[in-house]
Design goal:
There is one protein chain. 53% of the residues lie in helices and 3% in strands. The protein has a two-stranded antiparallel ribbon. It is elongated. The chain starts with 6 loop residues before the first helix and ends in a 13-residue tail after the last helix. The model has no long low-confidence stretch (mean pLDDT 92).
């Protein structure tokens, strides 16, 4: 073997590495495409959950809350709020959300305050549907603690 690193050796490493990592990328893409239908809870997605997602985005909820680990960590993680506050009961969760959103801000000294968004009853139900949908996504036991 040569004592020096030649241009042809560098070219072979570059092309070989490029092909190798391109094949890894294709393999991971195929695996993700295969696994997604089993994990993404698409059968529970409905118009109400889609409207709730738009409310989530329009009101910048992710600016304070995180959802499945994405977003800010100022306020609680909401990936499992459906189980925590609704006991996995859709009607109980919607009632909880109606009361919680109507009571904001709580004005408790020393506590972070959630603003009053003045959402209609239907909008709060749509937001609850969205959070119920996200609770059904398989996320490998995220969040790591029950209170998010």
């Amino acid at each position: 073997m040569s004592e020096t690193f030649t241009k042809s050796m560098a070219r072979n490493i570059y092309y070989g590495g490029s092909v190798f990592f391109f094949l890894v990328f294709i393999g991971l893409t195929m695996h993700t495409t295969k696994v997604m239908p089993e994990t993404d809870n698409r059968e529970a997605l409905n118009e109400s959950a889609a409207r709730g997602k738009h409310l989530w985005e329009d009101n910048n909820c992710i600016g304070c809350h995180s959802l499945i680990g994405e977003g800010a960590y100022f306020a609680p993680e909401l990936a499992n709020v459906f189980q925590r506050r609704g006991g996995s009961n859709s009607e109980a969760f919607k009632a909880y959300m109606q009361g919680w959103m109507a009571a904001q801000p709580l004005n408790i000294p020393g506590r972070r305050q959630m603003p009053q968004f003045n959402l209609t009853e239907q909008e709060v139900n749509d937001l609850a549907e969205f959070l119920e949908y996200t609770a059904g996504i398989k996320v490998n036991n995220w969040p790591p603690n029950i209170e998010g």
